[in-house]
Amino acid sequence: KNEVEQSPQNLTAQEGEFITINCSYSVGISALHWLQQHPGGGIVSLFMLSSGKKKHGRLIATINIQEKHSSLHITASHPRDSAVYICAVRSTGTASKLTFGTGTRLQVTL
Amino acid sequence: NAGVTQTPKFRILKIGQSMTLQCTQDMNHNYMYWYRQDPGMGLKLIYYSVGAGITDKGEVPNGYNVSRSTTEDFPLRLELAAPSQTSVYFCASTQGQGRMNTEAFFGQGTRLTVV
């Protein structure tokens, strides 16, 4: 079992829909990252969370440390949101590594 | 700040050739990482470093070497290229953890093909 599991793997939505992507992890973490990778490959950081909730524009990220679960929400989705969304966790301890989920491929259509 | 600069963007190697992927960051980050991304797979950690002079293996280190002589630079060396090393490689950096924890910054990636 992977340390970081994302669901769904693929998601198709119509423009304007509310989208939720889930991330579950099995290790102790000091932080969780949500990343976006567009076709063409560049990866950008959307959020870094260690507790609670963060909002940036139409994007909202939440984390529940006790349940080891995080969600990324996109409100009023738009075709330009089409990308792969990746969850990554920073494990606790001296070997502080980023471990990645396999990503959720989102396609938003008109 | 330029962030994380990774070169080259593309490279084709013949089996048995060697090359170095360069990665430099200007944010004074302690932690630097090399990942590879295979089609349909998540990023797999090759090597990482928690500071100058300190490196450690990740999940898939075989066939690669790294060094960290300065805080800024973290080059990845392929000594004897093999077709299994065909992949997209990403360099990343973060400041640290706890109160020093920062967002992760990524290079633009290197698409490597070994033929």
Describe the structure.
The complex is a heterodimer of chains A (110) and B (115). By secondary structure, chain A is mainly beta. Chain A has no helices and 11 strands. In chain A, strands 2, 4, 5, 9, 10 and 11 form a 6-stranded mixed beta sheet that branches. In chain A, strands 1-3-8-7-6 form a 5-stranded antiparallel beta sheet, with no helix packed on it. In chain A, strand 6 and strand 7 (59-64) form a beta hairpin. Chain A is globular. The mean pLDDT of chain A is 91. Chain B is mainly β and 115 residues long. In chain B, strands 2, 4, 5, 6, 9, 10 and 11 form a 7-stranded mixed beta sheet that branches. In chain B, strands 1-3-8-7 form a 4-stranded antiparallel beta sheet, with no helix packed on it. The chains are: A mainly beta (110), B mainly beta (115). The A-B interface holds A 2, 4, 30-31, 33, 35, 41-45, 48, 50, 86, 88, 90, 92, 94-103 and B 31, 33, 35, 40-45, 48, 50, 56, 58, 88, 90, 92, 94, 96-98, 101-106, 108-109, 111.
